Amino acid sequence: MEELHSWNKCINKLELGIFPTPLYRMTNAEGFLNYKPIYIKRDDITGLGPGGNKTRSLEYILGDAVRQDSNVIIASGPLQSNLCTLAACACSKLKLNCILVHSGEKPDKFEGNLLLNKILDVDAHYIGEVSENERTKYVDELFVKLEKEGKRPYIIMNGGSTGYGALGYVNAIYEIFKQCKELGFRINEIFAPGGNGGVAAGLIYGNAILGFPFKINIISVEYDKDTLSNHIRNIIKEVEEITQIPFNYKLEESCSIIDDYSGKGWGRNTIESEQLVLDFPKMEGIFIENVYNSKALVGMFDMIRKSRVNGEVCFIHTGGFGSLFSQW
Ligand SMILES: *Cc1c(COP(=O)(O)O)cnc(C)c1O
């Protein structure tokens, strides 16, 4: 814990959200599953724009950008990228210019996150249905062009799932640890969705630094277990470089990576996840979207039903609310 503070002092962290986010029991879900206690950590309401995990990541990523005196932030992703919208919100608050690069065609009707981007009046480049590599190439060229114009651009890499981004979730696990003490809660197992592995890397690394108070379960929403594990290892390496505090553990011994619930990959529903998007709000008054949290919550519910968990469980809701409005 002391170590966490020591590196926090030398890293530039901005305040973009409202923390700590609420942590409380989901009593209706407990009744539904006949299991208790089940907690939820409301990282869907982080206070910036439509909320979500990217607020925590951006506090460190844009902290790095500001430290480097950058004045144009480039974020990229698919049309409904949560990172893009949250980056645009953060840049408004910080009075930085923001350029969004979307792989996809400019739509006739702006829905979901795109509507929010439009309200923010952000500069958006629609480069058509290109691969991630081609999008990266476009972003790199844009960077060079902006530098030639005398601007100081900064690229947010890999959808924010980077070493700096993951620091947000090192902090989050510490936040949960402190909250448990203050509220008198005991939590044994934590569940969170895994896309590119930034949230996962932060949680796993932070949990190790704290001495493993929790068992971390990552439900993959896209990649198979080996691919996601490699992404997480690479991000943990980046975190180590930033903090200079080594992670001396084997990944497979520090967490569970579960790829049984990802279906056919990113943005593609399973029958169960599609149903839970409809059922969960009726249960707890909390919305989940189709890409991340529905699959992760299906996984947690299923593992509870199959007695594959022990003791108190907690779900980290990573948000994505903006995208829900384009999914129907
Ligand atoms: C980006 C994102 C995640 C997690 O992504 P990682 O790349 O694994 O860090 C989870 N939920 C939502 C809603 C997101 O936008």
From TrEMBL:
Residue limits of the Tryptophan synthase beta chain-like PALP domain? 15-319
Q: Which InterPro entries does the record match to this protein?
A: ACCD_DCysDesulf (IPR027278), TrpB-like_PALP (IPR001926), TrpB-like_PALP_sf (IPR036052)
Fetch the SUPFAM superfamilies from UniProt: Tryptophan synthase beta subunit-like PLP-dependent enzymes (SSF53686)
Under Pfam families, the record lists: PALP (PF00291)
* Cofactors demanded by this protein: pyridoxal 5'-phosphate
Q: Which domain of life is it from?
A: Bacteria
Identify the keywords attached in UniProt to this record, alphabetized. Answer: Pyridoxal phosphate
Q: Which family does it belong to?
A: Belongs to the ACC deaminase/D-cysteine desulfhydrase family.
This chain belongs to the protein called Pyridoxal-phosphate dependent enzyme
Q: Which organism is it from?
A: Lutispora saccharofermentans
Q: What is the lineage of its organism?
A: Bacteria, Bacillati, Bacillota, Clostridia, Lutisporales
